[in-house]
Amino acid sequence: MKKEIIQTENAPQAIGTYSQAVKIDKTVYLSGQIPLVPETMEVIDGDMESQITRVFDNLQAVAEAAGGSLNDTLKLNIFLTDLTHFPLVNEVMARYFEQPYPARAAIGVASLPKNVNVEMDAILYID
Q: Can you give the pTM of this predicted structure?
């Protein structure tokens, strides 16, 4: 088994003791991404759609750094502080993924880092 740490300047740097992603053979574990702008490390200004879009952009950047894309996703976990945003997540997600869609969970949580409203992580398989 070969373990590789994935790092890109095109996604926010870790704000804790973790890597952006870890690749083991053909499986990639993407750490949670929140709506941080990589260049400033600040939470993106804007509405919930802008925040969700930024999270998918961040995940895509890490997936590309690992040699894949979001379409290589096996499992996507979505954490929301307000589950009424679930339909909006579906709408934005459709811009990033093609069918067949990955397995997915949407989880309502009380709070997230930096008081954001959305965080996502993923597991990819890059063949």
A: 0.97
CATH number for 121: 3.30.1330.40
Handedness of CA 126, 31, 11, 24 (dihedral sign): negative
Distances in Å between the alpha carbon of 117 and those of 5, 38, 114?
Answer: 27, 18, 9
| Counted domains in the chain | 1
Q: Average pLDDT of 80-105?
A: 97
Going by C-beta distance under 8 Å and a sequence separation of 6 or more, which residues neighbour residue 87? none
Please tell me whether residue 60 adopts helix, strand or coil conformation. helix
Q: Domain of 78?
A: 3-125
